[in-house]
């Protein structure tokens, strides 16, 4: 998936993109997990399904990442792949995602950065000339 880290003083930034909004959100999920560990070491052994809803596209990005942070902290879940589906209906933004991965094991996985929360600082999400792009800063 196409994503990259963005330098941000003291925090972690992600830029994710794709040919459409679904691919951009999928790349964002995979980019998030790349902050936590070397995702090549994560087996797609189990699944995590989640749905988030929000009144704005920007708040949907933040809620999605904050839900991933919560699951990583509380359930120790690491993702190997993310398949996200975006929709807008009745004035509500919605994202459903299926993430394949497994629980963290100190014997198998490296420890990376564990963000505290996604922020609205410099957040951008929307169409670009060649598809969709999301930029977000996570409080480290």
Report on this structure.
With 140 residues, the protein is α+β, with helices and mostly antiparallel strands. It has a single domain, classed as 3-Layer(bab) Sandwich (Archease, Possible Chaperone, Chain: A, domain 1). 25% of the residues lie in helices and 46% in strands. The strands form 2 sheets. Strands 1, 2, 6, 7 and 8 form a 5-stranded antiparallel beta sheet that branches. The protein has a 3-stranded antiparallel beta sheet with strand order 3-5-4. Strand 1 and strand 2 form a beta hairpin.
The counted number of beta strands is: 8
What percentage of residues falls in helices of 4 or more residues? 25-40%
Task: Kindly estimate the percentage of residues that lie in beta strands according to DSSP.
Answer: over 45%
Supply the CATH architecture.
3-Layer(bab) Sandwich
Mean pLDDT level: 95
Under CATH, the homologous superfamily reads Archease domain
Please summarize what this structure is.
This protein has 140 residues and is α+β, with helices and mostly antiparallel strands. It has helices at residues 21-36, 57-75; strands at 3-8, 11-18, 46-54, 77-89, 92-103, 117-118, 124-128, 131-139.
